[in-house]
User: Which sequence fits this backbone?
């Protein structure tokens, strides 16, 4: 008989040693249990595809009419979604306008007020006959966020989990412990982000769904960037969704758990009149009160919180669109699949992006929150600089980075980037920095204007720290790439990603202006002075120059120094 672990003895006289042995025993048992555990068969899932005739829907007809109105030769229209307001209201518009299908593909959907507003309206769309498919990576569907899975038991909604993990769903720590026997499989995640309506309009970019992506986070808010698309390109986005949806790694939630499992994990529901002592009492809006059982989707979210996040949908008839040639870069589902085989470099989003960079003649502008280049990326950057191409990179500072381990990987390449002549910028973590990339292409009515953190919540100004999360590359001021990818080895060899490539001077210049606004007032420029690194603040900025990782605590700096030599780039 095979055994997973052997008995461990403990010295009775040493309490500290006893606790350590118990912890080691727990780790061993968890790892062995994961090794013995397996996922159920996934041979009962039903294949489905996107709605084949989008031109027969109101959204499809609107896209056609908008193109004719613009007299555009290109068959796809786009709007950059930099501000948190338009990022939320554009998604609400797609839900509201859908009559046949809604397809959502995300790495993470968090159980909070912004998601409650979106998911409640998704449920209402399903009740009026819209077919809803939600594909979610399984890594974050734990603890309170697992309550999102309740949608799988709603009529006309299907929810599948991609590359599911074995082990308990009650806590992240439990899942990590249970996955120790397959660390490589745990690391390979579906990072794609798509929001599609009637196969006619869609959104992709850096945002997941949750308060911190829409300016309402309690401790942190992400500076992010999406793109709204209409027309032919959306059919390519839908085809990508279908490949992942029908892949053998996409498990229907019902194969992994039932509604009773979620009930057992459920926290006591907040009273509709309960208020956080730190927040003012908010009267729910009429639209919230009109919705029945508003907290049924996410039971731990209060009506007052939902009221703060509730919005009217963007008017798709007036939002400015730029019609431009485009293509979709997308990884295959097999990139996330089991096995240790190397991914074909010619088939990944990151390698396609590097190929585009190599065609640059004058300028490459990169914005990547996690910038951990491997050998091939560094070789491309070196080649660009040798040809005289200007190379500028905006990434997180240690203080603004939500993943200090990733900063450790970036830091080991920082001096080499400077040595080759790259211009390196790191974003400041001040909450006001979140406004800089938020000068998007529209307001609630579709006009110009940016929206900062405070305006999304509808209450007092939010003082959560800012963290860069946008992922974009601008090449020669004529080509812009926006998607889910980071410029790191994790996106190159482990995660699946998706990105839109837009050949448009107007969109490229708009993205460049937003990034350069951050250079001018919200980011340090990293330089070498007297043999040491130096962080130079912009002229007139509210923050000062620094000679060491600015804004970061001594404890955090020490942790990065310890982590730096230990973890390989592909693990960061």
Assistant:
């Amino acid at each position: 008989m095979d055994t997973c672990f052997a008995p461990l003895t403990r010295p009775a006289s040493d309490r500290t040693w006893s606790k350590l042995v118990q912890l080691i025993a727990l780790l061993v048992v968890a790892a062995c249990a994961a090794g013995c555990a397996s996922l159920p068969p996934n041979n009962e899932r039903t294949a489905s595809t996107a709605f084949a005739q989008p031109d027969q829907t109101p959204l499809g007809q609107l896209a056609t009419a908008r193109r004719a109105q613009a007299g555009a030769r290109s068959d796809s229209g786009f709007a950059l979604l930099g501000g948190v307001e338009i990022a939320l209201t554009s998604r609400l518009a797609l839900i509201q306008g859908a009559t046949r299908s809604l397809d959502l593909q995300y790495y993470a959907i968090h159980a909070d007020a912004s998601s409650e507003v979106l998911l409640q309206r998704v449920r209402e769309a399903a009740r009026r006959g819209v077919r809803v498919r939600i594909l979610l990576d399984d890594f974050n569907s734990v603890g309170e966020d697992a309550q999102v899975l309740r949608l799988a038991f709603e009529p006309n909604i299907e929810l599948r989990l991609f590359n599911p993990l074995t082990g308990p769903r009650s806590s992240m720590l439990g899942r990590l412990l249970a996955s120790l026997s397959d660390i490589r499989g745990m690391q390979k995640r579906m990072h794609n982000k798509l929001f599609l309506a009637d196969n006619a309009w869609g959104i992709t970019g850096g945002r997941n769904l949750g308060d911190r992506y829409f300016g309402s986070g309690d401790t942190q808010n992400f500076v992010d960037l999406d793109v709204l698309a209409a027309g032919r390109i959306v059919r390519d986005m839908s085809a990508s969704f279908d490949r992942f949806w029908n892949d053998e790694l996409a498990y229907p939630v019902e194969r992994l758990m039932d509604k009773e499992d979620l009930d057992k994990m459920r926290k006591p529901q907040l009273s509709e009149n309960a208020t956080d002592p730190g927040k003012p009492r908010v009267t729910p809006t009429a639209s919230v009160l009109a919705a029945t059982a508003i907290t049924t989707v996410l039971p731990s979210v209060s009506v007052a919180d939902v009221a703060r996040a509730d919005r009217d949908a963007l008017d798709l008839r007036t939002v400015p669109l730029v019609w431009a040639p485009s293509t979709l870069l997308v990884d295959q589902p097999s990139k996330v699949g089991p096995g240790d085989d190397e991914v074909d470099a010619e088939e990944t989003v990151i390698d396609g992006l590097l190929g585009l960079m190599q065609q640059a003649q004058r300028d490459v502008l990169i914005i990547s929150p996690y910038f951990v280049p491997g050998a091939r990326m560094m070789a491309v950057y070196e080649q660009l600089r040798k040809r005289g191409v200007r190379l500028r990179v905006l990434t997180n500072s240690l203080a603004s980075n939500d993943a200090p381990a990733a900063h450790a990987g970036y830091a080991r390449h920082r001096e080499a980037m400077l040595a080759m002549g790259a211009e390196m910028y790191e974003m400041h973590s001040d909450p006001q920095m979140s406004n800089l990339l938020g000068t998007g292409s529209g307001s609630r009515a579709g006009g110009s204007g940016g929206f900062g953190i405070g305006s999304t919540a509808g209450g007092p100004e939010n003082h959560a720290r800012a963290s860069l999360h946008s992922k974009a590359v601008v090449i020669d001021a004529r080509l812009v790439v926006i998607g889910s990818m980071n410029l790191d080895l994790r996106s190159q060899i482990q995660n699946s990603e998706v990105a839109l490539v837009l050949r448009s001077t107007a969109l490229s210049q708009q993205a460049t202006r937003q990034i350069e606004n951050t250079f001018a007032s919200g980011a340090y420029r990293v330089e070498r002075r007297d043999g040491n690194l130096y962080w130079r603040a912009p002229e007139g900025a509210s923050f000062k120059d620094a000679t060491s990782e600015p804004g970061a605590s001594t404890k955090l700096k020490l942790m990065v120094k310890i982590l730096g030599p230990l973890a390989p780039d592909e693990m960061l």
Observations:
- Residues 1-25, 269-275, 279-294, 439-460 have pLDDT under 50 and may be disordered.
- The CA atoms of residues 134 and 159 lie 5 Å apart.
